[in-house]
Every structure is written in C-alpha cells, then in structure tokens.
C-alpha cells in the first residue's frame, strides 16, 4: 500500500513537471482565478494606498496638534511674561509716584524757603531804610 501511494505521488510529480500548472486547470477557471487574484491585488494596493493616506492624514493631524500645542504654550509663556512685566511696571510706577511726591514736597519746601528769604530780605531792607533815616537825622 505504501509503495502504491509512493508510486502514485511520483507519477503526480512527473505529470506536474511535464505539464505547466496552468494546463492542469481549465482555461476559463484559470482566467477566473487570474481575475480574482488581480482584483485581490488591486484591493490590496488600494488598501495600502488608503492606509498611506490615513497615516499621512494622521501625521498631519499630529503635526497640526503639535503646532497648536506649541502655539498655546507660546501664548501661555507670553501671558506669563506679560503678567511679570505688569508686576514690574506697577512696582516702577509705585517708585515713580513716591519720587514724584518727594519732589513735590521738596518743591513746596523750596517755595516756602524762597518766601522766607523774600520776607527776610524785605524786613532787612526795611530795617536798613529805618536805620538810614535814623542815621541821617
């Protein structure tokens, strides 16, 4: 039995070697298989193409999201810098207001002293005149 099976296999191999594979299948069936294989390959290629498009779109989405996140981070950084600048500006404004107050105080003091000097000079002048009048008499 084994020998018979082995001989049968050997004969099949010889047939396959002697004839092409396509001659073992009827022509219409072979063409049908070719068409099916062509359609399968076409679908695979289309699927691969669609996969590439999906991957490309996903990469674009990821890149856009990264750009948006980077822009958001930049805006947040700018807002933080702006807040720090405002704090600094308020501190400087406070210093300037104190200096302005000090200058106004000094100007008032200067005006007061100038008035005092004018008064002193006037009194001195009056006293000189009186003294001259007394001396001339």
Structure description:
The protein is mostly helical. It has one domain. Helices cover 96% and strands 0% of the residues. The chain has 3 helices and no strands. The chain is rod-shaped and about 170 Å long. The N and C termini lie far apart (175 Å). The model has no long low-confidence stretch (mean pLDDT 84).
Q: Characterize the biggest β-sheet.
A: none
Number of DSSP-assigned strands:
0
Helix content: over 70%
Poorly predicted ranges (pLDDT <50, ≥5 residues)? none
What is the first-to-last residue Cα distance? 175 Å
Q: Structural class, from helix and strand content?
A: mainly alpha
Helices and strands, in N-to-C order?
Answer: HHH
Domain count: 1
Per DSSP, the total helix count is 3
**Residue fraction in strands:** under 5%
Choose one word for the global shape. Answer: rod-shaped
Please compute the radius of gyration using only Cα atoms. Answer: 54 Å
The whole-number mean of residue pLDDT values reads 84
Entry keywords:
137 residues, mainly alpha, 96% helix, coiled coil
Could you give a quick summary of the protein structure above?
Keywords: Coiled coil. With 137 residues, the protein is an all-alpha fold. The protein has helices at residues 2-18, 21-24, 27-136.
Q: What's the arrangement of secondary structure elements?
A:
Layout: H1 2-18, H2 21-24, H3 27-136
